[in-house]
Amino acid sequence: MAWFQKTANKVKAKTPPVPTKGEGLFHKCDACSEVVYKQEFEAHFNVCRSCGHHEALPVRRRLEMVLDPGSFEELDTELAPADPLGFSDAKKYKDRVRSTFKNTGLRDAFLSGVGAIDGTPVSIGTFAFEFMGGSMGSVVGEKVTRVFDRAYEMKAPAIVFSSTGGARMQEGIFSLMQMAKTSAALHRFRSVRKPYVSVMLHPTTGGVAASFAWLGDVVIAEPKALIGFAGPRVIEQTIREKLPEGFQRSEFLLEHGMIDAIVPRPELRQKLSQLLSLLG
């Protein structure tokens, strides 16, 4: 039985409504309530210039931010989730996938392909949290695996941006198997002695954090990103103790040696270029 399927793009995503005059001109920061022009906010990659708060960034905009203009070639676009378990809760899994595609225009929670950073070819992929919380099912695992496989074939660096709630419960054990599958592909890639840079965004949790996301040669995080296996509330309820302030945030992890660096979003392209020139 196939755990994913190839499908033609028969259903068109919804076209966003045309805003009325004056609507959407300003943006209010969720952290400090600073109000700025939305165009200025988006030009700064959805980072508040006043307090540095990082808000969600559309998945394709993230790729535009780090890659050379016009260099990205998206691959694996034909892959779409199957429903191996016939899963249904409040809604059938296949219906949930279909409606999420209509709302986001994404086939699944991961975009992958090839591009270049300052002329250096890279195999790259990024999670899309807007698709079912960036959860990892069979398609996501396959796409991540192909990022490493292409990097192996190209003898080029691999870069993965993680932003996820973990394994996708609607696919059960098929989802959990992707932890081993992606880690095995990464192990094979190691033989070409090219760097794998893992960039952890807010949030990076569950099976993704417990597998390839924390296996980078260099592990980078955005400021104040929540990173860990289980969330703080789950841990507190389990051990019945209050956790330290800022527990599982990127600053806490850096202090305890769990990640290598915290890089603000506007500086990320420069940092990746520097790492690739040193390691690639």
UniProtKB/TrEMBL annotation:
Record EC number: 2.1.3.15
InterPro entries for the chain: AcCoA_carboxyl_beta, Acetyl_CoA_COase_Trfase_b_su, ClpP/crotonase-like_dom_sf, COA_CT_N, Znf-ACC
UniProt catalytic activity: N(6)-carboxybiotinyl-L-lysyl-[protein] + acetyl-CoA = N(6)-biotinyl-L-lysyl-[protein] + malonyl-CoA
Functional pathway: Lipid metabolism; malonyl-CoA biosynthesis; malonyl-CoA from acetyl-CoA: step 1/1
GO MF annotation: an example: transferase activity
Domain CoA carboxyltransferase N-terminal positions: 25-280
Cofactor annotation: Zn(2+)
SUPFAM superfamilies: ClpP/crotonase
Subcellular location: Cytoplasm
Keyword list, A-Z: ATP-binding, Cytoplasm, Fatty acid biosynthesis, Fatty acid metabolism, Lipid biosynthesis, Lipid metabolism, Metal-binding, Nucleotide-binding, Transferase, Zinc, Zinc-finger
Zinc fingers (C4-type) by residue: 29-51
Binding site for Zn(2+): 29, 32, 48, 51
Cofactor detail note: Binds 1 zinc ion per subunit.
Pfam families according to UniProt: Carboxyl_trans (PF01039), Zn_ribbon_ACC (PF17848)
Homology family: Belongs to the AccD/PCCB family.
Subunit comment: Acetyl-CoA carboxylase is a heterohexamer composed of biotin carboxyl carrier protein (AccB), biotin carboxylase (AccC) and two subunits each of ACCase subunit alpha (AccA) and ACCase subunit beta (AccD).
Summary of the function given for this chain in its UniProt record: Component of the acetyl coenzyme A carboxylase (ACC) complex. Biotin carboxylase (BC) catalyzes the carboxylation of biotin on its carrier protein (BCCP) and then the CO(2) group is transferred by the transcarboxylase to acetyl-CoA to form malonyl-CoA.
HAMAP family: AcetylCoA_CT_beta (MF_01395)
Record's protein name: Acetyl-coenzyme A carboxylase carboxyl transferase subunit beta
Organism (species): Anaeromyxobacter paludicola
Gene name tied to this protein: accD
